[in-house]
């Protein structure tokens, strides 16, 4: 059968378990009677070894052989020397780069192939691959994703071990990376309370203020890079206020949040496969700090991170004591400390780590939404017609208009479905071995929902699944169909996105206020032809996908906008 069509990293597809039927990519297999699951092979006390050859005996006989022992020691020394000399911290990029994912050696380098129809058609609904040494099952359609990650979520709610990003840099305290433990349950309960429907309503003033500043910024300057910066500023400023009751930020790169950006960058880098040898050789974790620069520096950084997050938390605590604080996630965690039983450091990392989850995703969705508005102007016109009827032209839309703006909600849903910000979500890990339709899933296998394929499944969304068509979420009366959430962008089961209510509300208001105020139009080239934005290129790197940069024209929809905007900004003091 050969390799799948590129571009891709060939090594990624080297299957650990050769399948006679399908070459190196394992699509569907039953273990042979003597089959040892791949994880057992790396188990020094090979508990699955055939009777008569216990793993312990093998290990002991190896250690008794002097030549072998010397060889092993030499190999360890070389590995250690290489890891020391490479000192990965020196490679930390100074700022995030935006380069196409295609051909990039990051974990998403295979994205174009994994989201193609070819992948699903050739390798089916459940596909096995060896992702940089980790056995991984990719769930290419809704049926297995729902069956495994939702219905059997008691077995599929663990996460892969991330030594550098989680255990060292984050002191093991970031909820999104945590194993499925009692500690995760406590953090999850506290996060759910701080991001419940009622709690999110408390953040409406922050979101309204940020949406107003966003409109104003888009009108002032809307070149491609500026537009993304405006989205970044709005999302970062909103999440900082929601997390820590922080004042409105002037720019997305405000020095006040430089520390959090550094943390996000380090964690993102550390979580990228291949960044640190310790991920492949976990025993390196036990090398004393003074012989391992990467570990020493990592632990120093972790102490800085903890101190920074504690400082931010304590700032809110101080305001709570003086009675001058407004609702925030930190305030909710501090006030709920008696019930949520979280230690200070747990609260500090829980709040701090939500910064990236809650801002990078929103920027990705807003970028894709702009592409959609420019590429499909009829959707923009229909949304504006709805806003004109419901809101009129003498005030900005607000959250109280939400129940009367079904098309705006459908627009947001369709953007989330059409171009999911994190097309593979975050891997879930099987706690125990399992079977799915005759396929064996060893304990410890990472299961990745191919959210892109689930969102584009013709069996669920029809033959026009690849098109941008917000109407698909409306019934014949033009109302939102209450029976279906309709997309899978927020993941599955017990580990699904805890911030989805906040995300949906934020996106609703950003979209409603922007479309009420401005037209987003195609620019023209030198020959006077309209330039259509590229709807298909996905840009990384990083955990979230973005469109290729494109220019669009942002113009006010009516002359009174300038004075209405000035009034609105005055009323918010921004
Ligand atoms: C459009 C915006 C967003 C998208 C597309 C998104 C997507 C996701 C996805 C796919 C996951 C993994 C789900 C899984 O494992 O099955 C996730 C987890 C998570 N998200 Fe979001 N998210 C968004 C916004 C937010 C916001 C606003 C917050 C918080 C303020 C947030 C906090 C989290 C956290 C803490 C987790 C980890 C949950 C756990 O492991 O238990 N997200 N998100």
Automatic annotation (TrEMBL):
Binding of heme occurs at 497
- Functional pathway: Secondary metabolite biosynthesis
Q: Which SUPFAM superfamilies has this protein been placed in?
A: Cytochrome P450
Q: Which domain of life is it from?
A: Eukaryota
The name of this protein is Cytochrome P450
Keywords of this protein's UniProt record, alphabetized?
Heme, Iron, Membrane, Metal-binding, Monooxygenase, Oxidoreductase, Transmembrane, Transmembrane helix
Subcellular location as annotated: Membrane
Q: Which GO terms describe its molecular function?
A: heme binding; iron ion binding; monooxygenase activity; oxidoreductase activity, acting on paired donors, with incorporation or reduction of molecular oxygen
Swiss-Prot/TrEMBL cofactor(s):
heme
Protein family per UniProt: Belongs to the cytochrome P450 family.
Q: Please name the InterPro entries in this protein's record.
A: Cyt_P450, Cyt_P450_E_grp-I, Cyt_P450_sf, Cytochrome_P450_fung
Keyword Transmembrane helix listed: yes
What's an example GO cellular component term for this entry? Answer: membrane
């Amino acid at each position: 059968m050969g390799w799948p069509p590129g571009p891709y990293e060939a090594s990624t597809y080297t299957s650990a378990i050769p399948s006679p039927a399908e070459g190196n990519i394992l699509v569907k297999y039953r273990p042979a009677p003597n089959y040892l699951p791949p994880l057992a092979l790396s188990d020094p006390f090979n508990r699955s070894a055939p009777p008569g050859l216990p793993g312990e005996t093998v290990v002991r006989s190896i250690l008794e052989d002097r030549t072998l022992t010397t060889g092993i020691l030499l190999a360890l020394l070389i590995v250690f020397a290489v890891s020391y000399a490479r000192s990965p911290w020196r490679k930390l990029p100074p700022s995030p780069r935006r380069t196409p994912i295609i051909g990039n050696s990051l974990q998403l380098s295979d994205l174009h192939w994994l989201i193609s129809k070819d992948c699903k058609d050739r390798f089916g609904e459940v596909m096995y691959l060896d992702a940089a040494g980790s056995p991984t099952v990719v769930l290419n359609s809704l049926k297995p994703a729902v069956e495994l990650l939702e219905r059997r979520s008691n077995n599929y709610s663990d996460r892969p071990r991330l030594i550098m990003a989680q255990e060292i840099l984050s002191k093991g305290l970031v909820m999104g990376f945590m194993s499925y433990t009692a500690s995760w349950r406590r953090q999850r309960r506290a996060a759910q309370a701080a991001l419940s429907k009622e709690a999110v309503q408390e953040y409406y003033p922050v979101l309204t203020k940020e949406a107003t500043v966003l409109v104003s910024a888009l009108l002032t300057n809307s070149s491609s890079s500026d537009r993304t910066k405006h989205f970044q500023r709005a999302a970062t400023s909103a999440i900082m206020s929601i997390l820590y009751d922080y004042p409105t930020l002037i720019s997305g790169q405000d020095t006040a949040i430089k520390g959090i950006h550094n943390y996000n960058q380090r964690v993102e880098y550390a979580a990228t496969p291949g960044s640190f040898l310790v991920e492949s050789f976990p025993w390196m974790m036990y090398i004393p700090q003074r012989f391992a620069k990467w570990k020493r520096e990592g632990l120093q950084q972790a102490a800085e991170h903890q101190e920074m997050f504690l400082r931010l938390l304590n700032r809110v605590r101080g305001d709570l004591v003086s009675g001058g604080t407004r609702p925030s996630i930190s305030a909710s965690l501090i006030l709920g400390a008696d019930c949520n039983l979280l230690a200070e450091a747990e609260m500090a990392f829980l709040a701090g780590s939500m910064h990236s989850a809650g801002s990078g995703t929103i920027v990705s969705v807003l970028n894709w939404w702009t592409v959609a508005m420019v590429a499909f102007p009829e959707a923009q016109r229909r949304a504006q017609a709805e806003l004109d009827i419901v809101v009129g032209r003498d005030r900005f839309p607000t959250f109280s208009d939400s129940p009367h703006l079904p098309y705006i909600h459908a627009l947001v849903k369709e953007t989330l479905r059409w171009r999911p910000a994190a097309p593979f979500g975050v891997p879930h890990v099987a706690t125990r071995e399992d079977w799915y339709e005759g396929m064996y899933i060893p304990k410890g296998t990472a299961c990745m929902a191919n959210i892109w394929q689930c969102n584009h499944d013709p069996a669920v969304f029809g033959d026009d699944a690849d098109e941008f068509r917000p109407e698909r979420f409306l019934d014949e009366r033009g109302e939102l169909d209450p029976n279906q959430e309709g997309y899978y962008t927020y993941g599955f089961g017990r580990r699904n996105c805890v911030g989805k209510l906040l995300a949906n509300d934020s996106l609703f208001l950003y979209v409603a206020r922007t479309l009420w105020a401005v037209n987003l139009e195609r620019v023209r080239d030198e020959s006077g032809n309209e330039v259509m934005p590229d709807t298909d290129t996905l840009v990384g790197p990083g955990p979230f996908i973005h469109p290729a940069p494109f220019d669009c024209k942002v113009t006010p929809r009516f002359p009174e906008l300038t004075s209405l905007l000035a009034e609105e900004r005055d009323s918010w003091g921004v």
